[in-house]
Amino acid sequence: MSGAAKFKNKVKISERHGGGEWLAERVLLTALLPLGLWVASTGFTLAGAAYDAVLDWFAKPLNAVLLSVTAVLLFGYLSLAWKVILEDYVPQIGARKALTGLVNLVFFVLAAASLFFIVRLALGSAPLPAGIGA
Amino acid sequence: MTQPKPNPGVASGDRTGRFVIQPNGHLTPLSPHMGIWRWHVTMAASILFRATLIAASVGLVFVVAWLGALAFGPETYETALALAGSPLGLFVGFGLTVILFSFILNGARHTINDTGNGLTIKSATALSNIAVWAPVPLAILFWVVLFAVGRVSL
Questions:
Q1: ipTM for this prediction
Q2: With an 8 Å Cβ cutoff, is A40 touching chain B?
Q3: Domains defined for chain B, CATH in brackets
Q4: Phi-psi bin for A17: left (phi > 0), alpha (psi -120 to 50), beta?
């Protein structure tokens, strides 16, 4: 909240938005529940698996696409979750904005790295760092 | 933001003894504060969902590291697999499964409650009990089966 509170019909205007964020949290969480079950079964399949077996798993487009979707939705949801937590426990606006920005940056980097790795594994690219600076 | 000042003893028969005048002029009771609460499992479920999301944020670093190890080739992956098979690695792996089941069950509770369902005291308590207690036995079952079928070994 910044600046003086504005009123419309004697009700604070800030009370009239924020619904979109709530809806985004609900939609993301609902989508992540079946994906979570899929991740559990995937974890069971890939636990302790050999390198070639894991690459075979990634070579199937459905697996690579589902994992990418899961990564994007999950990091997006966690970003919103941390925003709510920081809003609840960090009262100083400057510190809260800095921490929210930091959290978003971390999740963006993790999501980007995940997609980068998943795409390379799905395409059967040569092991890193081949293709980067060499 | 100016805090509405508590106005003690405005209305008789109220249980808080404190009413506030809202910005729109309405007189409403002050929300129960830190001093007025009673432990209930719904509260534990709510707190644990946040704890799960914070733990998941840390745990996902390990998952991304696993993806990275795969992308860096067989030797790196073997190293990662050896680390994951060490006692500490297995502990982290067990924690990841607890987090995952907690996320699924507590997320399901949250979603059910958000659609306006399961909000009677009895059903809210039942959903919360599942979300709080079930992840650990489920994770134990997950790892017992993994060991039993020989997928993972010490």
A1: 0.86
A2: yes
A3: 1-37 (no CATH), 41-148 (1.20.1300.10)
A4: beta
